[in-house]
């Protein structure tokens, strides 16, 4: 365990040094239930107001492992035409001595592409702010005078810009988005410490898609894929499949892997092979309230030194949109 913690701290230090400062963006396994966290154009997709709380404990049993929380609210601004979606999301993420907090407002303009309103194309814009912090006293280096490590606490305040498109029909969907578009630009950062560190996230691009297969009226399949890339490390790919029983019980699995699709600044055979498998479940306790749970198991060498990752979500729909206007939203 000592060698594992040392490895994690070394990786964290490399990610936070002044020349290669970057942090991977937050990703929830249960994004399959609510994709607002990765695409601002998703705001209002459910066509009624939806609130969700998500809690994630990653690599349980490892000291300083990531702890993440997120709360979001999104819905339709114009219930009659359903062209404008609005979403708000706040999140908090902590790993070892490093922490991040962010708040984002997302707006989506939704185009109706056919007379039956079975096809919609949405354009999304998200604007927010993120604060990245690190506690220098929790870092130990071989060189006590290393100028890259702050004395005390250091934090950066960075504006956040998100762009996205989302297309959906009754049977399939496609989305493309870019998050943390301002990251990497020093002129957009406010440094509250005299340290020479830049504590930021990398820009991330997301490509997602999925389809719905109606086996019979009470049983449906929903396979999907998510591709995430920051153009600095391996490309992350999620393969997911959910089974839906009577639109009330969702059971499924996910497989996440890293692929080295092109040359980047971090070339490592091991990085491209960090895989995990997940079990995912969601239950509608009532027509408007749902609870979801997922468990991730790492299949690499790290898996033997931790007890997996646990994720819990709770979602609530509300508002005055006539229920007759709402079709079951499975994407």
Helix content: under 10%
Question: Can you tell me the CATH topology?
Answer: Porin
For the record, give the distance between the C-alpha atoms at the N and C termini, rounded to a whole number. Answer: 40 Å
User: Strand count, sense and closure of the main sheet?
Assistant: 14 strands, antiparallel, barrel
Q: How many separate domains?
A: 1
Round the Cα radius of gyration to an integer and report it.
20 Å
The H-and-E topology, N to C, reads as: HEEEEEEEEEEEEEEEE
List keywords for this structure.
globular, Porin, 331 residues
Can you tell me about this structure?
It is a single chain. By secondary structure, the chain is mostly beta strands. It has a single domain, classed as monomeric porin ompg (Porin, Beta Barrel), CATH 2.40.160.40. The protein contains one helix and 16 strands. The two termini are 40 Å apart.
Describe how the helices and strands are arranged.
Layout: H1 2-16, E1 49-57, E2 67-76, E3 84-95, E4 98-112, E5 120-135, E6 153-168, E7 172-179, E8 190-191, E9 204-211, E10 213-216, E11 219-229, E12 235-245, E13 249-259, E14 276-284, E15 289-298, E16 309-318
Antiparallel strand pairs: 1-2, 1-16, 2-3, 3-4, 4-5, 5-6, 6-7, 6-8, 7-9, 9-11, 10-11, 11-12, 12-13, 13-14, 14-15, 15-16
């Amino acid at each position: 365990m000592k060698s594992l913690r040392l490895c994690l701290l070394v990786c964290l230090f490399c990610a936070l040094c002044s020349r290669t400062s970057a942090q991977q963006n937050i990703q929830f396994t249960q994004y399959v239930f609510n994709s607002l966290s990765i695409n601002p154009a998703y705001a209002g997709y459910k066509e009624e107001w939806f609130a969700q709380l998500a809690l994630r404990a990653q690599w349980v049993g490892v000291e300083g492992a990531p702890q993440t929380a997120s709360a979001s609210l999104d819905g339709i601004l114009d219930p009659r035409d359903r062209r404008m979606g609005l979403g708000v999301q706040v999140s908090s993420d902590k790993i070892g001595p490093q922490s991040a907090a962010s708040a984002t407002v997302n707006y989506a303009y939704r185009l109706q592409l056919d007379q039956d309103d079975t096809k919609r194309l949405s354009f999304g814009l998200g604007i927010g702010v993120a604060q990245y912090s690190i506690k220098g006293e929790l870092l130990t280096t071989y060189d006590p005078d290393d100028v890259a490590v702050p004395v005390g606490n250091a934090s950066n305040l960075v504006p956040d810009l998100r762009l996205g498109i989302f297309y959906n029909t009754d049977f399939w969907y496609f989305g493309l988005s870019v998050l943390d578009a301002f990251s990497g630009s020093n002129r957009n950062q406010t440094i509250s410490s005299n340290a020479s560190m830049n504590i930021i996230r990398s820009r991330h691009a997301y490509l997602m898609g999925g389809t719905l297969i109606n086996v019979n009226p009470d049983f449906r399949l929903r396979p999907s894929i998510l591709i995430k890339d920051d153009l600095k490390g391996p490309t992350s790919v999620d393969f997911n499949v959910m089974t839906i029983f009577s639109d009330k019980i969702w059971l499924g699995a996910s497989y996440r892997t890293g692929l080295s699709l092109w040359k980047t600044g971090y070339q490592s055979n091991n990085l491209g092979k960090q895989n995990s498998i997940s079990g995912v479940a969601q239950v509608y306790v009532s027509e408007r309230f749902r609870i979801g749970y997922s468990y991730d198991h790492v299949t690499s060498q790290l898996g033997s030194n931790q007890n997996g990752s646990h994720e819990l979500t709770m979602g609530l729909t509300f508002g005055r949109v006539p229920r007759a206007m709402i079709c079951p939203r499975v994407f």
